[in-house]
UniProtKB/TrEMBL annotation:
GO terms for molecular function: ATP binding. This is ABC transporter ATP-binding protein. It comes from the Bacteria. InterPro entries: AAA+_ATPase, ABC_transporter-like_ATP-bd, P-loop_NTPase. Keywords: ATP-binding, Nucleotide-binding. Residues 5-234 form the ABC transporter domain. It comes from Chryseobacterium tagetis.
Length: 246
């Protein structure tokens, strides 16, 4: 497998409306790839296709070498997914959540036992392991959710606004975990509305009205748009957008 993700002219229409309009990009293995766009730009729609949850209308894409039309099940087995909206079960303990998701992803019982002990130590959650996830502060929930999303050692992890609503320090710690995952060879595909997080990505795309309007490293984009701030790059690209989800 050369590239983690290859998208060519990927399009998703709902009736006449092109939610995703001929997007083309590659993501390298082990890369942290940021997927930015204003509300309604088409990020979630594209991500759902890449996660094997929805079919495109036209164009092509492979994820971890698997085809989004024909190999959705293989894609699902080879990726991890985390979003603010869908993550852990509040009414299960930390340990039960880890065991549950490990099982869903087909990790063996002995491996689950070994890895969950390691994980709880790494996160310093020894005292909380048998407490309900619902009792954890949001920032900790998100760190745990990320760890669970990569528990089965997927090739790629998709993060849909993973740090929404948490404070900057916890966000920073969350990003340390993302860097560690990338250093371990996991490709990270992340959507965010936070421009400081965009700066942490190796490369970013900015989507506007279903299209990829820019794709480069944060440094190159700032150069190209003649500014020192990613906020400004984003503003220059998104200000003429016709869509807004709000
Ligand atoms: N099932 C659907 N049927 C019709 N239109 C849809 C459907 N799903 C999404 N859309 C539309 O497609 C566009 C892109 O939506 P999408 O959720 O992908 O945007 P987004 O970039 O993820 O936005 P946000 O940041 O608000 O999550 C929006 O205009 C949305 O209303």
């Amino acid at each position: 497998m050369d590239k983690a993700i290859i998208c060519k002219d990927l399009t998703k229409q709902f009736g006449d409306f092109k939610a995703v309009d001929r997007i083309t990009f590659d993501v390298e293995q082990g890369e942290i790839f940021g997927f930015l766009g204003a509300n309604g730009a088409g990020k979630t729609t594209a991500m759902r296709i890449l996660c094997g949850l929805s079919f495109p209308t036209s164009g092509s894409a492979t994820v971890a070498g698997f085809d989004v039309y024909k190999q959705q099940e293989q894609i699902k087995r080879n990726i991890g997914y985390m979003s603010q909206k869908f993550s852990l079960y509040d009414n299960l303990t930390i340990l039960e959540n880890i065991e549950f998701y490990g099982g869903v992803y087909g990790v063996s019982r002995s491996e689950i036992k070994k890895r969950s002990a390691e994980l709880i130590t790494t996160l310093s959650l020894e005292k909380e392991a048998k407490k309900l996830v619902g009792a954890l502060p949001l920032g900790w929930k998100q760190k745990l959710a990320f760890s669970v999303a990569i528990f089965h050692r997927p090739k790629i992890v998709f993060l849909d606004e993973p740090t929404g609503g948490v404070d900057p320090i916890t966000r920073r710690q969350f990003w340390d975990m993302i860097y560690q995952a990338a250093a371990d060879g996991i490709t990270v595909f992340v959507t965010t509305h936070y421009m400081d997080e965009a700066e942490y990505c190796n490369r970013i795309t900015v989507m506007v009205d279903g299209r990829v309007e820019a794709l480069d490293t944060p440094a190159n984009l700032k150069k190209q748009f003649n500014t020192h701030s990613m906020d400004d790059v984003f503003y220059q690209l998104a200000r003429n957008a016709k869509r807004s989800g709000d």
